[in-house]
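SUBJECT: protein chain
CONTENTS: sequence, structure tokens:
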Amino acid sequence: MTDPASERRHLATALVNKGVLKASWLRAAVETVSREQFLRPGVFLDEGRTWRPVTADGANPDDWLKIAYSVDTLTTQLDGHLTADQAGGPVVGVPTSSSTDPATVVGMIEALDLSAGHRVLEIGTGTGYSTALMCHYLGEDNVATVEVDAQVAARADAALEAVGFSTWTVTDDGLLGHPYRAPYDRVIATCAVRRIPYAWIRQTNLGGIVLGTVGSWPWGTGLAKLTVGDDGTAEGRIVGRSSFMQARAQAVAPLAGDLSARSAYADSERRVLVSPLVLEEWMPAFLAQLAAPGAQFVRATGGDGSPLRYLFDPERESFAEFLVDGESWTVRQGGPVALWDDVERSLVAWQDAGAPEIDCVRLRVTPASHQYWIDQAPSLRWEDRIT
């Protein structure tokens, strides 16, 4: 019979060996908090085209513990409502809630630089596991957590109670923060946002830290760590790559319909200087989102099997369509904004600067805008204004 305490110790050791678990208090929390409690009623395991449901009550106890203490992200909800106990067999669907892999959870908590007595606001409760890790150190009264999905929030609240934490679990839109318990010393978001909501800055103490993933694509997103200043702004940098589900209020449905009709009327056509295929790489994708905020990157295949790539910006009614001829790409652009001109300009400057990694990007948040820049490349500056 597998011992849960032994599995927790093994997980902690694995995270130490990965270099993500450093604080002694956090190791104690990982070795104490029962992750399996936060995975009830079950999880969905990715089998390629389908998801296989595994429930806590239906699985072999040893197998269940092995799943619970794996280093993987575990999907706990599909399509905004379906849980593993409701599925009679393999199903198709889109993940809408999960238990993030422990390395990411622990790494983000480490990045908060927590001290005893700090008050924390967590955006995106999910299963509640990360909430419990912070409660173990800070105490349940110093942690407030907000979850937009009532079903997810109820399960997390029950799990937190089961492990002994009666913390502040709120069902609401986390993009608004939680002013009732403000101000906070730390704000941490476990969902991705196009911009850091200014409400999070406003609800954080002077010198406090806001940590959240910025970007609206499934990849090419970055973890922003900001310190709140006395002038009403927050400044910091992208501390690394990060990948989370989009905040529900900002989630963008994939473009459907006839893509060729959307790009039928072009204002210009030319050869590209940079292949659009670089947008499938992390850092170029991040830069593209800075240069063309609101744009979506779409991959498709032509009737002859040739690859097609598009940028669409529905808000600004603009597009860029990429057509390949052998190894050469042509871009057709239409609408008020030449999307690829803006993106390509940033990509060329980035390459000329030696292609620095994502942790070289700095960020300043004001009530009116997000300003990004890279110190070693003076021409690389972007401003995303809030309208």
